[in-house]
């Protein structure tokens, strides 16, 4: 019994999740980001996306804690809805509907609710810029599954989501830049219902 307890204590000491390894000021930043992402009532913006094939897409972005929607207008109409552990992409031009699990997708790190950057999530980096703040996160038990960097404006202590950068397990990079951000928008839950096949 004592040996089993010792092994458990040793294993818990080896856990890599969370942000306890960060300096106190950066831990405070992580708390601010968690509070912002969990507390935003609704967020809309225009987006420009850079994909792994160096192509660009654009459209409208909608977010509530735990759910995300992208309505593409460029290069052609598409609808992406993500939440509840799944991502569904409806390509209106081809009629194809693609289903993906968020379990091993870096975007899934943003779409847990409530968001907590500890336990099974590892904070790998916190950086400040001129009026900006960003956090990089990965799965603690398998960081090779991907990395997500969430970018914010940070003006007078007020955060605003301005972008996402990620790399998946196959080393495909993506980036989403947000503009014309509207925060506190009421968004009907039905907006985040995946498209029917």
TrEMBL record:
Residues 1-17 form the signal peptide. It comes from the Bacteria. It holds the Pfam family LolA. Gene3D superfamilies: Lipoprotein localisation LolA/LolB/LppX (2.50.20.10). Keywords: Signal. SUPFAM superfamilies: Prokaryotic lipoproteins and lipoprotein localization factors. This is Outer-membrane lipoprotein carrier protein. It comes from Gluconobacter sphaericus NBRC 12467.
């Amino acid at each position: 019994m004592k040996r089993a307890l010792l092994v458990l204590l040793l294993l818990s000491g080896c856990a890599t999740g969370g942000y306890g390894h960060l300096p106190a000021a950066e831990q405070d930043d992580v708390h601010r980001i968690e509070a912002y992402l969990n507390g935003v009532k609704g967020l809309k913006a225009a987006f420009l996306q850079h994909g792994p094939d160096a192509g660009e897409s654009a459209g409208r972005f909608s977010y509530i804690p735990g759910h995300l929607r992208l309505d593409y207008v460029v290069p052609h109409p598409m609808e992406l809805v993500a939440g509840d552990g799944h991502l569904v992409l409806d390509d209106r031009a081809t009629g194809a509907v693609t289903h993906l699990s968020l379990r091993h997708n870096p975007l899934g790190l943003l779409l847990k609710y409530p968001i907590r950057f500890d336990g099974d999530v590892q904070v790998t980096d916190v950086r400040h810029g001129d009026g900006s703040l960003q956090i990089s996160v990965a799965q603690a038990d398998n960081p090779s599954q991907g990395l997500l960097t969430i970018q914010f404006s940070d003006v007078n202590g007020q955060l605003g989501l301005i972008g996402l950068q990620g790399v998946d397990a196959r080393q495909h990079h993506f980036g989403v830049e947000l503009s014309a951000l509207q925060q506190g928008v009421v968004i009907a839950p039905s907006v985040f219902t995946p498209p029917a096949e």
